[in-house]
Prior knowledge:
Blueprint: E1 2-3, H1 9-22, E2 28-32, H2 41-58, H3 71-87, E3 92-96, H4 102-110, E4 114-119, H5 122-130, E5 135-139, E6 145-146, H6 161-169, E7 176-179, H7 185-193, E8 198-200, H8 203-206, H9 215-223, E9 229-232, E10 240-243, H10 246-251, H11 263-277, H12 300-312
Amino acid sequence: MIGAGYMTPDQIKQQTREIKQLTTGYFGINVFVPHAFNVSENNIAFANEKLEPIRKQLHIQQPENDKIPQSNDWLHTFHEQIKVIIEEQIPICSFVFGIPSEEIIHALKQHNIILMGTATTVSEAIEIESKGMDIVVVQGSEAGGHRGNFIKGTPESSIGLMSLIPQVVDNVDIPIIAAGGIMDGRGLRASLCLGAQGVQMGTAFITCIESGAHQMYKKAIINATEDQIVLTRAFSGKWARGIENKFISTMKEYEQSLPSFPIQNALTQHIRKTSALQNTTDFMSLWSGQSPRLAKSQHVALLMKSIINDIQE
């Protein structure tokens, strides 16, 4: 899967063509469903005031106002991404943060693209099926990174994967893919037992040798314990799960008052990038699921083989 939420249409095109040179097999792409949002100058000023000490520590400037995303721009980029997905004939298209319009679903289906939606509750899974999507990814609260909820808020949508899978299975007919804290064959076996037909894994691949993740990020996951994995909206303005660090603990008392996604995400972008360049994890977003103790530094091939062997045995 290509994680294309922040990619430009040209970047999608380039990566798709690289993948096609490497495999004749199926691959997919994941994009963010945009939502209208308001840009509040007071909100932005508040966030900048709280972020300024961190920027000074990293020796970076406050971003210019023209770098703040606008609702129409985000929507336009999304439609351009969809155009490229159709032009490049990407076999599978996955969505998070909501469901695209009926027009977009129809256009993608006309080109025989398999559609996947992301649900954190039974009601979201039912809605995904009712809109004509082919597969639903059931995201448990254990999952690293951003919450995929779109009907209710994060507290009401934070349901554990093992509770969520069988309830979704009983209420939809489309195939279910389980996501959240799955790191090995045991997680896959448990998911299949409960009625899922596959799994989606993230954190397990971040620490692999071939992963392009920052070395300090990989090391942080491998050295983390399950009680260090927290939910925060300080980085992006949207609740996400990752390893607690200096940035999260510093911003915790303000996070409910910070701008929503994608505004806060834009305001912290240079902080996150500079922290990575300076080889410090203090201000990086260290997204991780709740099973970091199961993470290993190993080749991807070995991870895949061990999962398959687990199932065969």
